């Protein structure tokens, strides 16, 4: 009996050790990519060899975009560690949710354009204000819209907001690769990625949706994902007034 338990415990520890090592490898990879861009382009600019104003601007934009990506990744890691140690507190403020979504969209438009994707916004104009943690909610929209862009090859992304009974509902719909139904329940798990080889190419730590779900639930809200393979996915957030 005891021998058996020790063996199971050993296997579990081995499992955690493996996933921790994999996690560290993923995180290093994720950090290295934007850092390489930032270092590379800032080196070129610092040497003063780029006289063309358009090129200078392009390089600065790349640096800026990669720095934002780093910020959001580090935020995910930070949020995750706070969730783990039970130090997750909200700093709520009354806000117009449409404005917050629009702020995130404008940050991600360059990434969408690069892939030839259109982001369509369909917001209910007279949505009542709600009380949310601004930074965290921004992170939620960033993670979801970034995923929509990442996992869509062509077509468009539609973002809707509307009021239904006493819920503000936000939908992020893409026309992307979709998620197989047997995988759908697992996407909320920490580090979970549907297809390791597929997501390797697109990058990703498997942390995004885990953090999203924790943030939404800490606001006493709900989030559901629905998806059809090769057709697209929709993530729907319910926030109580
Ligand atoms: P990642 O950093 O890998 O994107 P997430 O936690 O955000 O991690 O997502 C977990 C997995 O769920 C992803 O690796 C991807 O396989 C799948 N996924 C998330 N969003 C979408 C989407 N909009 N379309 C298709 N697959 C998605």
Bound compounds, please? adenosine-5'-diphosphate
What share of the residues lie within helices? 40-55%
Q: What is the general shape?
A: globular
| Number of helices in the DSSP assignment | 6
Distance between the termini: 53 Å
Multimer state: single chain
Query: How much β-strand is present in the residues?
Result: 15-25%
State the major sheet.
5 strands, mixed
What do the pLDDT scores average to? 88
Number of strands: 7
Order of helices and strands: HHEHEEHEEHHEE
Query: Could you name the ranges where pLDDT drops below 50 across 5 or more consecutive residues?
Result: none
Structure characterization notes:
- The N and C termini lie far apart (53 Å).
- By secondary structure, the protein is an alpha+beta fold.
- Helix 1 packs antiparallel against helix 2, helix 2 crosses helix 6 and helix 4 packs antiparallel against helix 6.
- Strand 6 and strand 7 form a beta hairpin.
- The strands form 2 sheets. The chain has a 5-stranded mixed β-sheet, with helices on one face.
- Helix content is 54%, strand content 19%.
- The mean pLDDT is 88.
- Bound molecules: adenosine-5'-diphosphate.
- The site of adenosine-5'-diphosphate has 22 residues, from helix 4 and helix 6.
Quickly list its features.
two-stranded antiparallel ribbon, 241 residues, alpha+beta, 5-stranded mixed sheet, binds adenosine-5'-diphosphate
Present the secondary structure layout.
Layout lengths: L1 H45 L6 H32 L7 E4 L1 H18 L3 E6 L6 E4 H17 L5 E9 L2 E7 L22 H7 L5 H11 L3 E7 L3 E9 L1
Parallel strand pairs: 2-4
Antiparallel strand pairs: 1-3, 4-5, 5-7, 6-7
Helix pairs in contact: 1-2, 2-6, 3-4, 4-6
This protein binds adenosine-5'-diphosphate.
């Amino acid at each position: 009996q005891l021998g058996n338990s020790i063996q199971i415990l050993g296997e579990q520890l081995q499992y955690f050790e493996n996933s921790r090592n994999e996690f560290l490898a993923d995180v290093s990879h994720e950090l290295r990519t934007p850092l390489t861009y930032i270092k590379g382009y800032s080196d070129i600019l610092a040497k003063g060899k780029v006289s063309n104003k358009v090129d200078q601007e392009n390089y600065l934009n790349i640096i800026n975009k990669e720095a934002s990506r780093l910020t959001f990744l580090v935020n995910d890691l930070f949020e995750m560690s706070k969730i783990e140690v039970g130090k997750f507190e909200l700093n709520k403020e009354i806000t117009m949710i449409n404005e917050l979504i629009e702020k995130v969209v404008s940050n991600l438009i360059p990434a969408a354009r690069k892939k030839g994707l259109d982001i369509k916004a369909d917001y209910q104009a007279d949505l009542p204000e709600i009380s949310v943690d601004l930074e965290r909610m921004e992170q939620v929209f960033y993670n979801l819209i970034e995923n929509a862009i990442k996992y869509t090859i062509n077509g468009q992304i539609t973002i809707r907001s509307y009021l239904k009974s006493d819920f503000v509902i936000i939908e992020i719909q893409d026309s992307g690769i979709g998620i197989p139904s047997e995988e759908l329940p697992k996407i909320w798990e920490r580090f979970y990625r549907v297809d390791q080889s597929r997501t390797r190419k697109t990058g990703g730590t498997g942390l995004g949706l885990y953090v999203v779900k924790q943030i939404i639930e800490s606001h006493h809200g709900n989030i559901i994902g629905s998806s059809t393979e090769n057709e697209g996915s929709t993530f729907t957030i319910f926030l109580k007034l």
